[in-house]
TrEMBL record:
Protein name: Neprosin PEP catalytic domain-containing protein
InterPro entries in UniProt: Glutamic_endopeptidase (IPR053168), Neprosin (IPR004314), Neprosin_propep (IPR025521)
Domain Neprosin PEP catalytic span(s) in chain numbering: 159-413
Family matches, as PANTHER family: NEPROSIN DOMAIN-CONTAINING PROTEIN, PROTEIN, PUTATIVE (DUF239)-RELATED-RELATED
Pfam families in the record: Neprosin, Neprosin_AP
Amino acid sequence: MDMKVKVLLYLIFLFISPLYGNTARLSINRRGLEVKKHMNRLNKFPIKSIKSPDGDIIDCVHISNQPAFDHPLLKNHTIQMRPNYHPEGIFTGSKKVVKDGGVKTKPITQMWHKNGRCPEGTIPIRRTKEEDLMRANSVEKYGIKKHKSMPIPKPQPNLINQNGHQHAIAFVEGEKYYGAKATINVWDPKIQQPNEFSLSQFWILGGSFSEDLNSIEAGWQVSPDLYGDNNTRLFTYWTSDAYQATGCYNLLCSGFVQINNDIAMGASIYPISGYHNSQFDISILVWKDPQEGNWWMQYGSDHVLGYWPGFLFSYLSDSGSMIEWGGEVVNSESDGQHTTTQMGSGHFPEEGFGKASYIRNIQIVDETNNLRAPKDIGTFTEDSSCYDVQLGKNGDWGNFFYYGGPGRNPNCP
Ligand SMILES: *[C@@H]1O[C@H](CO)[C@@H](O)[C@H](O)[C@H]1NC(C)=O
Ligand SMILES: *[C@@H]1O[C@H](CO)[C@@H](O)[C@H](O)[C@H]1NC(C)=O
């Protein structure tokens, strides 16, 4: 697009944006102005907008107008429309048929697809609403984790305070990792307090557990504070300084470059698994392009979503040093007892398929850029009577584990 046209469109957008975000109703106070300013920064001019049945508005934004390009280091960036390399070989012309683990799973789409799709050349962005920002303690911190948030499976010299976060995970360390893959069972755990959350994801970690930890994360989450509801949503996170000044969820800051017009970060996943009922899962692959150094993300078997440019990171501009897969909840102990916020299905691993949540076919990308089974998988949980994890291995599911739990119960008071 011509620069003048772009500027003109932007000015028009600024002028009409109050109609989009209901900011007209805002009283002119400092916070109101701050909110409006931040909304204008986050929400880009949409070519088309789709109202999702869950209340979200999905803006189809021209690909070259996405939040990534607000990053000073991305000003002259040429978008990579496809990775140079794919660990499953789909870009070399020999697409492998990935076996589906023998489980009958229907394809999972996003809820907003019921009401439309974004055209080619655009990307779908979940619009940030006034009420989203009003929920945040600080407008500037919306979309940024409040606490350091990754499991520390072993006592570390520089132990980072975990602020009541609890995990049940499987992990590997001790090699150089260039990516990770997993198929994650999708549930809708109950959240006790709006400031708590429950998620299932993997972490690709670089560096040590100190103030310069690098992390790339993807999975699903239920987070009333972030989204204003209890829906299960696809999310990503990145940081290059242990969750301090860099990184954010989804596209809520500049960093991730999206190329896909089908999948919106932060959108509700549909459908969800039921207890003793149909099971649904999502596959996520993140890998490093050995040529450009970008970290790519794929959702399902055919949605290459985009990439985190390598220069966002320090350690991860080379490789990861640890991969973790599993669940995390916040236990705020608001009533002096352990939270009742559930992890996964809210049931313990012992209950098995159809009842407990699972993460299956966990794999890593090794130094030769190939996907393979991880070696020497460890497990970790802060308190197995609240949330637990149980490893397994078989032909269809490869390396897998069941994980999760109800939180508060007679053994976890
Ligand atoms: C972008 O390109 C312009 C013109 O070539 C140059 O002056 C500027 O330094 C570049 N910016 C970055 C961040 O590379
Ligand atoms: C989310 O669920 C909790 C109970 O688990 C409920 O109290 C709360 O009202 C729900 N929040 C929303 C926004 O629906």
